[in-house]
Amino acid sequence: MPLEIVKSLANSERPKCDIEFIDIQNDRLFTSSEGGNVKVWNKEDLKAVGELNANQCPVTCIAVKGNLLYAGTSGGNIVVWDIEKNTIIRELNEHQGSLAKIRVLGDLVASGDTEGKVRVWQGDTLVHLYETSEEVWDFDLTDDHLYSIRDRDLLVQKIQKTERGHQLSTTKVLEARGPMCRLDGSIAVLSRDGMDIHILEDDKAHFKRIGIIKGQDRIINALACGQQPKTHLYSGGWDNTVRSYDLQTFTPLSRLDVGQAVNCIRPDPSSSGHIFVGGNNGTLCKVLDR
């Protein structure tokens, strides 16, 4: 079925910087850019309703956990806001490299940086530190494995719990490029040229390639799995398009030109078929997958 833009920002409403990350909390949408602020929008009509200032630090990634918003910066600190009070309640300062990704994992928050460090937090307490052999573009974490990826490799490491803490041992190194998206029993990654999507079996051992999807005409910047239905995968990139694919047949479904390079895609967890797309020059649009 076709992808359709149902709402987008007019030129006069757009942020001045590229939109790099999107997250959602109830009826609010949060976007970050290297301008140093996190913009808050009404999810339904994309009207601006607020702004969070990261003390003039370029914001490189964000994640929402309940009423808290975590913003990673290029300087390595993580700024934590109370969304309801619009106040900074703490800063986490353990990272030295620029933050590339923050993930919410139940009660925990994990953060990865360009120096190859993945840290796991409970509140303001650092509970685990994982050191990989290369910078982290994207990552995911389970109880027993760490998946990290950059521009040439997907590194899968087993987490061994010892008396001295958690230790990592390499399970597999695969040719791949970020971003990555873990699915139900599989993983979506990019080919090293960044234009095709490879689907790998997530068996914690062999990671057999079970599908190849012809992706986009230029490098892909964003991957996301649909919430409703979960059989859809979305990508966006430098060719100014968002595309959808059938994960059961590994075939393209639809293509939508949004007029600017796409940097991030965030499916709406509470709405069937809606995704939000952020891109260069402040591009932000709400898209319906019919």
What does this structure look like?
There is one protein chain. This protein is mainly beta. Helix content is 0%, strand content 59%. The chain is built from no helices and 28 strands. It has strands at residues 3-8, 21-25, 28-32, 37-42, 48-53, 59-65, 68-73, 78-82, 87-92, 99-105, 108-113, 117-122, 125-131, 138-141, 145-149, 153-162, 165-175, 177-182, 186-190, 197-201, 209-213, 220-225, 232-237, 241-246, 251-257, 262-267, 274-279, 284-289. A hairpin with a 3-residue loop joins strand 23 and strand 24. The protein starts with a strand and ends with a strand. The relative contact order is 0.14. The model has no long low-confidence stretch (mean pLDDT 93).
Radius of gyration: 18 Å
Mean of all residue-level pLDDT scores = 93
Q: How far apart are the first and last residues' alpha carbons, in Å?
A: 5 Å
Q: What structural category do the secondary elements indicate?
A: mainly beta
Q: Uncertain spans, ≥5 residues at pLDDT below 50? A: none
- N to C succession of SSEs: EEEEEEEEEEEEEEEEEEEEEEEEEEEE
Q: Helicity, in percent?
A: under 10%
Instruction: Report the count of strand segments.
Output: 28
Query: What composes the largest sheet?
Result: 4 strands, antiparallel
- Please state roughly what percent of the residues sit in beta strands, choosing from under 5%, 5-15%, 15-25%, 25-35%, 35-45% or over 45%: over 45%
Q: How many helix segments? A: 0
Tell me, briefly, the overall form: globular
What characteristics describe this protein?
mainly beta, 0% helix
